[in-house]
Amino acid sequence: MTEHLPFVRLRAIEPEDLDILYGIENDTRLWNVSVTSVPYSRYTLYDYIANSKNDIYADRQVRMMIENKCGEVVGIVDLINFDPKHLRAEVGIVIEQKFRNKGFAQATINQIKDYSLNILHLHQLYAYVNKDNKQSLNLFERCGFISTTELQDWLFDGKNYHNALLFQLFL
């Protein structure tokens, strides 16, 4: 039986997304699962939006807004650490709190897989996931990623180190 997932549309970041981006980037609850450790100013984020070429080859990353069928932004998905020689990129996703546990993350990962394979012609996507983050572990497993390595003390939350699992998907 096929699971019904909600409609999602991926689009480029627009200046109108500044408040959403500002909220996500400065949410300290997310910092322990990312490389962010300082707040971003509105000016810095506006400058990022204005100067990003939105070209993975130029920027070595691409960030897209995730919209639902009503045009509401439900989150952000990133392809970062793009390696054009080895044709791989790291995937990261944040779904706004009020839209979590409704299938938007899985629908988005499915779309980013299709985009990575058919548009970017990538060979591999990967993600680092905190071993204690059951929701993210389940998400990547449902989307076909395989846990290939456990990295000891990989993530630091400001007080404690946490092991991370490296998830890989070969396209």
UniProtKB/TrEMBL annotation:
Q: Where is the N-acetyltransferase domain?
A: 8-171
Q: Which InterPro entries match?
A: Acyl_CoA_acyltransferase, GNAT_dom
Question: What are the protein's GO molecular function terms?
Answer: acyltransferase activity, transferring groups other than amino-acyl groups
Pfam families to which the protein is assigned, alphabetical: Acetyltransf_3
Q: Which domain of life is it from?
A: Bacteria
Q: What is this protein called?
A: GNAT family N-acetyltransferase
Q: What is the lineage of its organism?
A: Bacteria, Pseudomonadati, Bacteroidota, Bacteroidia, Bacteroidales
Q: Which organism is it from?
A: Marseilla massiliensis
